[in-house]
Design goal:
By secondary structure, the chain is an all-alpha fold. The protein folds into two domains: 9-110 and 203-350, no CATH class; 133-179, no CATH class. It has helices at 14-40, 42-45, 50-61, 87-116, 152-157, 176-180, 182-187, 190-216, 220-246, 257-282, 287-319, 323-326, 329-350. It is found in: Membrane. The chain crosses the membrane at residues 18-38, 87-107, 190-214, 226-247, 259-279, 291-310, 330-349.
C-alpha cells in the first residue's frame, strides 16, 4: 500500500494532537459565544453595532459547503469497486433527502403539539434570523430612550422609527426591540425556530465530528497545516451558528438554549478528535478503512450541509425574507458581499482541508 494509504501514527506528536484538541475547543467557544454574549449582555449590546451581527451571520453562513475527500478521489487507497459507481453523490443525496424528511416529520409533530396547546403553526416560512422593522407593514414610532444598543442598526436604516414627541397620556408604545423581533416571535414560534436552527446545527455538528476524526488520524507531515486551517474554519463557522443562536427568540425559562447550543457546537470537533485518537491508539486501523470511513461520512455530512445551506440559510435569509425584496441596494450588497467574502475564505481554506 502506498504511503498515502498508510495509517497515521502518533510518531512523537501525540502531545501536539492533544493540545490541538484544546486549541480547537477554545477557538470554537470564542467564535460561537461572541455573538451570544454581545447580544445578551447589556454592556456589550450597547457598544456592538448591529452591522457586526449581520456581517458575522452571513460571513459564517458561507462556511457550510462541501468539503473533505470523496470516495472516488482517494488516490488508489481503496478498492476499485468503489470507483465503479458515484457512491459519494449517492450518499450525499441520501443524506439530503433524509434531512428533508426528518425536518418535515419534526414540523408535523411540533404542529400537532401546538394544536393540543391551542396554538397554530404559521403558514409562512420559518426564519432563523428576524426580519427587519422596515419589512413590516406598519411601525409605531418609538422613543429613543427605549432603544438598546443592539438595535442601532435598525435605527440607522430607518430613522423615522424615532419619535420627536413623548407618548400621549395612557398610551403604551411598543419598543423597537419588539418590532425588530416581530416576525420571529409572532409568526415563528420558539418551537419552529428551534427546529430550524436544530436542523442547521445538527448538520454542522455532524460535519465537525468528522473533521475531528480526520484531523486525529492525519499523518504528522500534514497535521500542523491542517490544524491551522481547521482552527480558522471552526471560528468562522462558529460566528454563523452563534449569531443565529443569539437572535433566537427565547421565552422565559428557555434563555439557556443559545448557551447550550454554543457549547454543543464547540465540543463536537474535540470529541471527534478524542475518538479518533482513542481508536488510533487502541485499534490497528488500516489506511484503506480510514479513507473509506472518512469518505462515507464526508459524503453524508455534505448532503446535510447542502440542505441546510440552501434551504435554512440562503432561501430563508434571502428568498423568503421580505426585507431583501425591497431594501436599498446598499443593504442588499452588504449581505451578499459578506456572504461572498466568507465563501471565498472557506474556499481558500478548502484547498488544504
Amino acid at each position: 500500500m502506498s504511503n498515502a494509504c498508510a495509517g497515521s501514527s502518533a510518531d512523537g506528536i501525540l502531545g501536539l494532537r492533544v493540545g490541538g484538541l484544546f486549541i480547537i475547543l477554545v477557538t470554537s467557544l470564542v467564535g460561537t459565544l461572541f455573538p451570544v454574549i454581545a447580544k445578551r449582555v447589556p454592556f456589550l449590546r450597547r457598544r456592538v453595532p448591529g452591522s457586526v451581527f449581520e456581517f458575522a451571520k452571513f460571513f459564517g453562513s458561507a462556511a457550510d459547503q462541501l468539503g473533505g475527500r470523496s470516495i472516488r478521489s482517494a488516490g488508489g487507497c481503496i478498492d476499485d469497486t468503489w470507483a465503479d459507481f458515484p457512491y459519494a453523490s449517492a450518499f450525499c443525496m441520501s443524506a439530503l433527502f433524509a434531512a428533508f424528511v426528518l425536518q418535515m416529520v419534526a414540523f408535523r409533530l411540533g404542529s400537532a403539539k401546538l394544536a393540543k396547546m391551542g396554538k397554530t403553526q404559521p403558514d409562512q416560512p420559518t426564519q432563523c434570523f428576524p426580519a427587519r422593522p422596515s419589512s413590516l407593514d406598519s411601525v409605531v414610532p418609538t422613543p429613543r430612550d427605549t432603544i438598546s444598543g443592539g438595535d442601532e442598526l435598525e435605527l440607522s436604516r430607518n430613522p423615522s422609527l424615532v419619535a420627536d414627541k413623548a407618548p400621549l397620556p395612557g398610551e403604551t408604545r411598543p419598543t423597537l426591540r419588539e418590532h425588530a423581533f416581530h416576525d420571529a416571535s409572532e409568526e415563528n414560534p420558539l418551537l419552529a425556530q428551534a427546529i430550524a436552527i436544530g436542523t442547521l446545527e445538527f448538520g454542522i455538528c455532524f460535519h465537525s465530528v468528522i473533521i475531528g476524526l480526520t484531523l486525529a488520524v492525519t499523518q504528522s507531515s500534514e497535521f500542523r497545516p491542517l490544524l491551522v486551517v481547521i482552527v480558522f474554519h471552526q471560528a468562522f463557522e462558529g460566528l454563523g451558528v452563534g449569531t443565529r443562536l443569539a437572535f433566537l427568540d427565547t421565552k422565559p425559562g428557555y434563555e439557556w438554549i443559545p448557551w447550550v447550543g454554543s457549547l454543543i457546537y464547540s465540543i463536537c470537533t474535540p470529541i471527534g478528535m478524542a475518538v479518533g485518537l482513542g481508536l488510533e491508539q487502541g485499534l490497528a486501523i488500516t489506511g484503506e478503512s480510514a479513507t473509506l470511513a472518512s469518505g462515507i461520512m464526508n459524503s453524508l455530512s455534505a448532503g446535510i450541509l447542502l440542505y441546510t445551506a440552501l434551504v435554512e440559510l440562503m432561501a430563508h435569509e434571502f428568498v423568503f425574507n421580505r426585507f431583501y425584496h425591497t431594501c436599498g441596494w446598499g443593504s442588499f450588497s452588504f449581505a451578499i458581499v459578506s456572504f461572498a467574502v466568507g465563501a471565498g475564505l472557506m474556499g481558500l481554506i478548502g484547498k488544504w482541508a
